[in-house]
Specification:
It contains 11 helices and 9 strands. The two termini are about 35 Å apart. With about 350 residues, the chain is an alpha+beta fold. The chain has a 5-stranded antiparallel β-sheet, with helices on one face. Strand 4 (about 90-95) and strand 5 form a beta hairpin. The radius of gyration is 21 Å and the shape is globular. The protein has 2 domains: about 10-105, Phosphorylase Kinase, domain 1, CATH 3.30.200; about 110-340, Alpha-Beta Complex (Aminoglycoside 3'-phosphotransferase, Chain: A, domain 2), CATH 3.90.1200.10. Helix 6 (about 175-195) packs across helix 9 and helix 9 packs antiparallel against helix 10 (about 310-320). It has helices spanning about 10-20, 75-85, 110-115, 120-135, 150-165, 175-195, 230-240, 245-265, 270-300, 310-320, 330-340, and strands at about 35-40, 45-55, 55-65, 90-95, 100-105, 195-200, 210, 220, 225-230. Keywords: ATP-binding, Nucleotide-binding. It comes from Cupriavidus campinensis. This is Phosphotransferase. One of its GO terms (molecular function) is ATP binding.
Length: about 350
């Protein structure tokens, strides 16, 4: 879930949604007129909060997932897998797959992003790391799609198509395209060699909720989960597009997670330096993808709220690409696109 949505009264699906919740019967006694925007995400899914007459669930969330664009079944499936892992996810209370509606337990409106500060960060991130390890330990092969080379490549391709081509209005030369392919191939080789676990794919401060009962975090927006590289969700968490921490602090949290995960039996590399390289290279894949997605959300979907987050994602991208000899052609490409000259520096 992400930015608040606009007034939905002109939307023809609202009447359909209200009719559905009203028809759930006396056990729920939902007031359809209480329906109010809760949040939306970067897809066609939207979320509404309703008041109910149910003692255990005085409020609930209705997911609106238009069947022409979305499928509720992955959400239900992953909610089951993650719930079995012992983490807090919204319980599916009622469903109508034909119409594309789910009634979900309400995890509140306090995101990690709204609560993170210097005093709360260590505790909140410790909870998030503990939950992440539980999810990863629950991995069962064949239960989720593979985060394979084809999918990782499709995500990387969003960068030249949407960020470079549409957002910057640039056309890469043949030599630049070859350099980018070389960087992509190096990154993908690293990503695919990592241990494979359940991957949420957006395990960040807007999708983690601070709960009144302290069973943090409440975890949202997991329907695109896959089995893939073990560092991916750690990147989402600590190199978040929406909040920045200095690298010394990132390292501290990452070391604590690595130690916790290895102690729990996850097959992470025994050398933290190797693990950190995996984390950085996985991060580069994610951040190139995110640059493309944020540009696409603006140019194709008219959602300009993500543009403010581009500089931080670009900063992450440059920092990593500038640290490794195999990735330096990406820095040269970014310099050329931005028309800047950078002094020579040390690389690994």
């Amino acid at each position: 879930m992400a930015a608040l949505i606009h007034d939905p009264t002109s939307d023809p699906r609202i009447a359909q949604l209200k009719s559905w919740v009203a028809g759930l019967g006396a056990a729920w006694s939902i007031d359809p007129d209480s329906c109010a925007p809760a949040s939306a995400d970067a897809s066609f899914r939207r979320y509404f909060r309703v008041r109910t007459g149910h003692a255990a669930h005085p409020t609930a969330i209705v997911m609106d997932a238009p069947p022409a664009h979305e499928d509720c079944r992955p959400f239900i499936h992953v909610a089951g897998l993650f719930g079995e892992a012992g983490v807090t996810v919204p319980t599916v209370l009622a469903q109508d797959l034909t119409q594309g509606f789910l009634l979900l337990a309400d995890l509140g409106s306090q995101t990690y992003l709204s609560k993170l500060d210097a005093s709360s960060a260590r505790g909140l991130y410790d909870d998030a790391a503990a939950a992440l390890v539980r999810i990863q330990l629950a991995t069962r092969p064949g239960t989720l799609p593979a985060y394979d080379r084809a999918l990782l490549q499709r995500e990387l391709d969003l960068f030249p198509e949407w960020y470079v081509g549409r957002h910057l209005g640039a056309t890469l030369t043949g030599a630049q395209q070859a350099d980018l392919r070389e960087v992509f191939d190096a990154v993908l080789a690293n990503n695919l060699a990592q241990p494979q676990v359940y991957v949420h794919r957006d395990y960040h401060s807007r999708n983690l909720m601070v709960l009144d009962d302290g069973a943090n975090p409440g975890i949202l927006d997991f329907q695109d989960a896959v089995i893939g590289p073990a560092t991916y969700d750690a990147v989402s968490l600590w190199r978040d597009a929406y909040i920045e921490w200095d690298e010394e602090q990132q390292l501290d949290w990452l070391i604590r997670y690595w130690e916790r995960a290895r102690k729990a039996g996850l097959p992470l590399t025994a050398d933290f330096g190797d693990f950190y390289r995996d984390f950085e290279w996985m991060g580069l894949q994610r951040h190139l993808k995110v640059l493309g997605i944020f540009a696409r959300l603006y140019h194709r979907d008219g959602k300009d709220g993500y543009l403010a987050n581009l500089p931080l994602v670009l900063k992450y991208t440059r920092n990593v690409a500038g640290r490794y000899t195999e990735l330096r052609k990406l820095v040269r490409l970014l310099d050329a696109l931005e028309g800047t000259e950078r002094p020579a520096g040390f690389t690994f």
